[in-house]
Amino acid sequence: MESHLSAALEYARSFLHEGAVATYIPELAKGDPTQLGAAIYAADGEIYRVGDWQQEFTIQSISKTITLILALQLAGYRKVFSKVGVEPTGDPFNSIVRLETTAPRPLNPMINAGAIATASCCMGGRDAFSEFLKLTRRLCGRSSISLNEEVYRSEKQAGMRNRSMAYLMQSDNLLECDAEDALDLYFRMCSVNVNTMDLARYGMVLAGNGKDPETGEQLVEGWIVRIVKTLMVTCGLYDASGEFAMKVGIPAKSGVGGGIMGSVERKMGVAAFSPGLDAKGNSVGAFHMLEYLSHHLGLHYFAGSECRV
Ligand code: GLN
Predict the structure, then answer these.
(1) Which of 75, 83, 185, 203 is the most buried (most CB within 10 A)?
(2) Which of 160, 190, 220 is the last residue of a domain?
(3) Could you tell me the CATH number of the domain that includes residue 68?
(4) Is residue 175 predicted with pLDDT exceeding 90?
(5) Are residues 93 and 44 part of one domain?
(6) Which residues pair with 50 in a beta bridge?
């Protein structure tokens, strides 16, 4: 395993020049595009790490999976899926166009509009961000996980596109609260600092059907885990979800902070990180690390058949 991880690192490093850090959130522009790391949390409790696995970065859109878990826990299936659909879009993650042309309801919870609507379902008079942070810490197994204030402020200041979507949705009665409150919660959720180890452990919770891999405690109910993993397969990498499914074949979720979290059924959680992104907003380094690991460890959901990439 150690040698596969080192080889994956070298393989992915050769593609790093193709990526560029996100600049539309000014704080993210400070990321170092040469950083690259990964972690695996195996079902037997073994942990494997390589490169900049310990580097903290903001969770960004990977938070959308946790937002969905929380919303389903707090507001239930009917409420959540009355606000957001479950179909892939084929559009960029921050696209606004479908809210007008397809249906007012955002197509799925893994794109910005869908996550803002999902976040609004978590409000209900409670301190939704503390609930989110508490859940994130439990899933990742680290109580020191916290908000990156600089990124949060930067997102809030620069988030005019997200603001436009939220107001449009509010005008269509799709939000469970005021647009600014839903946005504030959404920006905070995106701005939580994690590292690859945290995300690998979270991936293992999902891979183990919601059970804490150390204590065996059921952290998330099975029906919720199934919904989240299904949406990771179909929508987890935005408009590159099809390519990722073909080349990597692991339920996964990416974020513009440079992370990708994956969950290999019953076997492992795996996460990779590198701040340079491709044109669709997915980390070039993380994508290639996962691609390498999937091939060499046989992690594709249809492993066994020949792979030709
Ligand atoms: N916070 C980012 C945004 O709203 C999240 C996007 C992402 O990670 N793809 O644009």
Answers:
(1) 203
(2) 190
(3) 3.40.710.10
(4) yes
(5) no
(6) 38
